[in-house]
Write a structure and sequence with these properties.
Blueprint: H1 6-17, H2 20-36, H3 39-75, H4 79-101, H5 113-124, H6 128-141, H7 143-157, H8 162-187, H9 190-201, H10 204-225
Helix pairs in contact: 1-7, 1-8, 2-3, 2-6, 2-8, 2-9, 3-6, 3-7, 3-8, 4-7, 4-10, 5-6, 7-10
């Protein structure tokens, strides 16, 4: 079984954090906040509300990881089961690459359409609880966007001792929110928001391609060494 390494956790978390689902909702939040406050009061409110949204995603993803790692820890003790996990990771990574290169062919790995209405209702609260609710919802519903990468890294973490598992899991999730915090810093200014949104929208396919490719490679690494 491939051993967990620092680069695998750091790079995996960063790639997971650039998923388009989380980015688009955060940019929408920032746009709503900037439209409703004065210039002088914009930045603190953006950081407060946006930060709570990111915190909601962090806690949700961390709790999902804690739940999944218990199941995966039991599975990795079965040689065949580890290979099956690796095959699923490769298949989902290939699906993500397909979504990037052939977006109109077949179903796409994305947030369920039904969840968008829930996220919009949470955003309409426009306060801390709305931001937290949106973060939790996106954290749960964004799993189809990049969940295969998370499962692949969790399969590696599962073989580590208990204390190390928790450390690796927290580190992964810190890396997961790092791109969101960087995006929040860039978008917290009215002048830069449109540029950031334009840049993000026009690179959705490239982002999916990188995430899908990394997921496929991780799956093959597990498959070849299981």
């Amino acid at each position: 079984m491939t051993q967990i390494t620092l680069p695998a956790v750091v790079v995996g978390g960063l790639l997971d954090g650039i998923n388009p689902c989380a980015f688009s909702v955060l940019l929408s939040f920032v746009a709503v906040i900037l439209a409703s406050v004065t210039v002088t009061g914009a930045s603190p409110r953006v950081w407060r509300i946006g930060g709570i949204y990111v915190l909601g995603m962090f806690l949700t993803y961390l709790l999902l990881g804690l739940g999944l790692i218990g199941v995966i820890g039991w599975v990795v003790r079965m040689h065949l089961a580890v290979r099956l996990i690796a095959v699923v990771v490769v298949a989902l990574g290939t699906w993500t690459v397909k979504d990037a290169l052939l977006p109109g062919v077949g179903p796409a790995l994305a947030m369920p359409k039904a969840s968008y209405g829930l996220v919009r209702r949470a955003m309409a609260w426009s306060g801390p609880w709305g931001a937290l609710g949106a973060g939790v919802l996106v954290g749960m519903c964004a799993v189809p966007c990049s969940g295969a990468l998370y499962v692949g890294v969790l399969a590696l973490i599962a073989s580590a001792p208990l204390a190390a598992k928790l450390g690796w899991l927290v580190l992964y999730n810190v890396m997961f929110i790092a791109p969101l915090l960087a995006l929040l810093a860039l978008a917290a200014n009215r002048r830069s928001l449109n540029r950031v949104a334009h840049w993000t929208i026009h690179r959705r396919a490239a982002t999916k391609l990188v995430m899908g490719g990394a997921t496929v490679l991780l799956g093959f690494a597990i498959l070849l060494t299981a």
